[in-house]
């Protein structure tokens, strides 16, 4: 049972389910935790007005006679609450058990439309933070990665509520924002993939953290190489390939000691057949996290518009990635496809009825039958009345024949059809 209390009512041993206010205002990267003495002090010093506690997972606050009932529909009995007993001393330092952490951090599912609105605000706020970290690195200053922990937690929460909204929205990048939004997109994809693989909560956060920081080395890559429109020379290719080691060095010099995240930064360009860089690792010599990052990094890169090329459509990108023998871990790649969908949101498809549609929602139990928005007749080459069609519905007799390239149909703003 959840109850909202004032910050000055928080006591050690209470289970904090959620801190009120914007994620950036919270002094904690986790939304849910057992409060200890230090946490109580930080909450009270932060200016956070209220928080939500779970009275079934932690201590229950004493209620005064003037306190409102927890449920307005069920008036409180006219009794005097017993005085609060002092908390068990072991609760002051003991971390929450894994089961309690899992129970407390589950976010309620939201629709794609609702979560896109949340994701827009998150990406806008997060871009400024990521840009500031890159700026510090570019100036040779120490990078404080701890400031990113609230953002990482917010990214994880977003993909838990809806795994498609943030990563679909982040795919729409402008050239000047590419590096920063790419970092957040990869973090979101990593969290989504980690959840699909059934990894524990701390591993999901580690995956997201590594995804957010994976390209930190590009902060010191010369702009003329990073944004070059044409092919890179051998020398420029060598400069570009130094960014994993540059990022690893920058973060270690800044005092970061998160092993999993550092491994992602250093090895996200390794390939299963040993042809990757910087160390030419292969097979099991590449950690699971780095193998995950290799998939997420490439997918977001090739589906995004870059200074030197237009992005491929999501479904075509997955098809091409599947054909790159020796590049990706096949088990991880299969899990990734299941997490984003065979026809990811925003994919232009041709139906058996010769109508064009854009994918607007996934059907988790039927990856080949998403919900689509029909808007064009391919046979007559004319627009039709827009309508939504659930291909997984038992009575639907239409199905996807193939994905289509928007440029072949002169479509440059396809997102206007699927973005709320």
TrEMBL record:
SUPFAM superfamilies noted in UniProt: HD-domain/PDEase-like (SSF109604)
Cross-referenced Gene3D superfamilies: Hypothetical protein af1432
One protein family per Pfam: DUF3391
Location of region: Disordered: 64-94
Family annotation (PROSITE patterns): HD_GYP (PS51832)
InterPro entries assigned to the protein according to its UniProt record, in alphabetical order: DUF3391 (IPR021812), HD/PDEase_dom (IPR003607), HD_GYP_dom (IPR037522), HDIG_dom (IPR006675)
Domain HD-GYP: start-end pairs: 157-352
Alphabetical list of PANTHER family matching this protein: CYCLIC DI-GMP PHOSPHODIESTERASE PA4108, CYCLIC DI-GMP PHOSPHODIESTERASE PA4108-RELATED
NCBIfam families from the UniProt entry: HDIG
Full protein name: Nucleotidyltransferase with HDIG domain
Species for this entry: Luteimonas terrae
Lineage: Bacteria, Pseudomonadati, Pseudomonadota, Gammaproteobacteria, Lysobacterales
